[in-house]
Amino acid sequence: MIRSDTPASEGPLSLRPVTRRGVMNASLGLAAAATAAATLQAAPSKAEAASDAKTGPGSGTITTKDGTTIFYKDWGARDAQPVVFHHGWPLSSDDWDAQMMFFLLQGYRVIAHDRRGHGRSSQTDGGNEMDTYAADVAALAKHLDLKHAIHVGHSTGGGEVARYVAKFGGKGRVAKAVLIGAVPPIMLKTAANPGGLPMEVFDGFRAALAANRAQFFRDIPAGPFYGFNRDGAKVSQGVIDNWWRQGMMGGAKAHYDCIKAFSETDFTSDLKTIDVPVLVMHGEDDQIVPIADSALLGIKLLKKGTLKTYKGLPHGMATTNADVINKDLLEFFKA
Asked: How far apart are CA 246 and CA 240, in angstroms?
């Protein structure tokens, strides 16, 4: 997490008086920056070795059968193992910056797309449900000729991964999958899922989005998404602003429809169908997708599932605790 410790009262840098403390802080800052730079330079030995390998333009779009434009990023050597990241609602591929950069420097080919209706993709008024989301991913995977890929999904993206891998992951297309704070098996409270969240919760989401999406998209990241509403939390305004920025890039109609997709879709049969190794990662203080009715149930349905939980970590832990999550992801990728 990036946080500023400079009191607002000190004013702009150019107007501050020069003091011993100021010089010391500046020196420490430069030293930290140098250390970070050295780490980044030292880490990508695989990436550097593959620097002459064939690469592409870095980003692009595809057009699906129904005319929807899907934006994607595609970084790294084309002969490296691909890792495909699936973002949560109502965000975009930008939510994976910390993972995209880390795994690119580890020598992987990293790919992330903006789901239809989100980010830079078409602001669709139809097709905003899981079967179409998965079909869009299949079209992207075919376009990029992805094989032996690792698919990583967060929240709604975890549901997208489950549906995609179950329906399209055969014939060597998928090697492994990861579900982070993911919605499967099903979020909604039903007769078969008595521990789920009542419909009133999701109706409240829809009402808030329709009434004042801009404010709603401030309240979520400033509160439960990153656990910034917890006592003692280190709040990052930059993280909040970035969440808002991504959300407001997408279409309100698609975001509205997606609430039904992530809350009411039952992924039970998908989880039972998946036959590749799956890592399930979940924060124990997830206030958006409570762990008891998601990861703790989903792991029982997977043939080759591994569960890893994180005490005190929030729904958005891949951002707030990227160092921890990236380390565990890398270990799973290499296993």
From this structure: 10
Query: Following CA atoms 329, 152, 234, 291 in sequence, which dihedral angle do they give, to the nearest 10 degrees?
Result: -100
**Residue 315 bears catalytic tag:** yes
Q: Tell me, what DSSP letter sits at residue 63?
A: E
155 is catalytic: yes
- Distance from C-alpha of 299 to C-alpha of 62, rounded to nearest angstrom: 34
Q: Does residue 258 register a pLDDT over 60? A: yes
3-state secondary structure of 15: helix
- pTM value is 0.86
Which one from 257, 270, 286, 293 is the annotated catalytic residue? 286
From the list 146, 78, 87, 84, the residue with the least C-alpha distance to 107 is: 78
In terms of DSSP bridges, do strands 69-75 and 109-113 run parallel, antiparallel, or are they unpaired? antiparallel
Q: Which long-range contacts (CB under 8 A, 24 or more apart) does 251-254 make?
A: 251/117, 251/118, 251/123, 251/124, 251/125, 252/209, 252/210, 252/213, 253/117, 253/123, 253/124, 253/125, 253/128, 254/116, 254/117, 254/118, 254/123, 254/124, 254/125, 254/128
Q: What is the C-alpha separation between 202 and 262, in angstroms, rounded?
A: 10
* CA 97 – CA 117 distance, rounded (Å): 20
Q: Per DSSP, what are the bridge partners of residue 151?
A: 84, 177
Mean pLDDT of the 20-39 span? 44
Task: Look up 286 and say whether it is catalytic.
Answer: yes
Q: How many CB atoms lie within 10 A of CB 90?
A: 28
